[in-house]
Amino acid sequence: MKASLKKSKTDDIDVSTWLYGRRLPSPVMSASGTSGHGAELAGYFDLSAIGAVVVKSLSHFVHEGNPAPRVGVLPTGMINSVGLPGPGVRRWIDEYLPDLTRTGANVVVSVWGRTKADYVKAVEQLAPVSSQLMAVEINVSCPNTEKGGEMFGHDSKETAAIVKAVSQTCDLPIGVKLSPNTDRYVEVAGAALDAGAVALIASNTYLGQAHKRDSNQPMLGTSSGGGVSGQGILPLSLRIVRELNKAFPGCDIVGVGGVHSARDALAYLFEGASAVQVGTATFVDPRILYRISEDVKWLVKKQGAQSLKELLAKKSMPPSF
Ligand SMILES: Cc1cc2nc3c(=O)[nH]c(=O)nc-3n(C[C@H](O)[C@H](O)[C@H](O)COP(=O)(O)O)c2cc1C
């Protein structure tokens, strides 16, 4: 009852944004890997009401992922070493895409691989369904097995080579999901844009290690650690977005990391992001993407604006509510 009352009050508020050359109804998107492979969140809210659904990173092969435990809870969020398990692009197209397409959501497919050829094969397999997709997000936080296991995303040449190869293979707009675990992310981002990417996604998880409570034993099955996400990383990723916006003004940037509220989302948008992705918060509340999206409307209205664009132009945050 309360939710519908609130919604009706903000029906006239326009929080649309532009990304990948499309107008999205909201700047709030899901983050890859945190809401399943397809329409898993459709039981909680209308997926077409948010900006886009970014599906878990897919490879051209079936992949098992890492040993359990794969996730652990931290005071500031979580740590994971899920290891990119997935059905492979072909099975995903058959088993997950039809339900997701039926929701009317904008769909972004994230792809990963261990070699440049892996990325190319993944997007080749997506070709028959490209009209059902909005964009491809390239996850470069993967070890490059042809280069001694160094992450693709820590090397501007390797990142550019993947982006170029993918852009020569598919017609979809390309976003690159940057790794924050290098001080060269601006250089990597520049190389990705020169190679044909049109959006920068900032960023993936931060490498970390955590022990079980009251123990010196690693929390995760992969004893080497995992990726840290959640509220604690918001200031880190916010800084990356700021740096990217300074280096590439006008470029489409998507802020990711620690978004749990509309205020968090607005922090990224005020730093120049066109949209935000929400990951870890979804594990706390599966409706949170919709809630944040509606709350952004509410904040716009509270500041006396009619649209998100107008609010951002005012350059001032609405008072707390
Ligand atoms: C359990 C889990 C699985 C994830 N899987 C992927 C993935 O498949 N591909 C990817 O690009 N990022 C993946 N991520 C990273 C998220 O998309 C996001 O970049 C990160 O968690 C930071 O956002 P958050 O603080 O809102 O969670 C994963 C994160 C978590 C917590």
Give the SSE layout.
Layout: H1 2-9, E1 17-19, E2 22-24, E3 28-30, E4 53-54, E5 71-74, E6 77-80, H2 89-95, H3 97-102, E7 107-111, H4 116-126, E8 135-139, H5 156-169, E9 174-177, H6 185-194, E10 199-202, E11 206-208, E12 226-229, H7 234-247, E13 252-256, H8 262-270, E14 275-278, H9 281-284, H10 288-302, H11 308-314
Parallel strand pairs: 3-14, 4-7, 7-8, 8-9, 9-10, 10-13, 13-14
Antiparallel strand pairs: 1-2, 5-6, 6-12, 11-12
Structural description of this entry:
This protein is α/β, with parallel strands linked by helices and 321 residues long. The chain has one domain: Alpha-Beta Barrel (TIM Barrel). It has helices spanning 2-9, 89-95, 97-102, 116-126, 156-169, 185-194, 234-247, 262-270, 281-284, 288-302, 308-314; strands at residues 17-19, 22-24, 28-30, 53-54, 71-74, 77-80, 107-111, 135-139, 174-177, 199-202, 206-208, 226-229, 252-256, 275-278. The protein has an eight-stranded parallel beta sheet. A hairpin with a 2-residue loop joins strand 5 (71-74) and strand 6. The chain is globular and about 55 Å long. The model is unreliable at 1-5 (pLDDT under 50). Flavin mononucleotide binds next to strand 6.
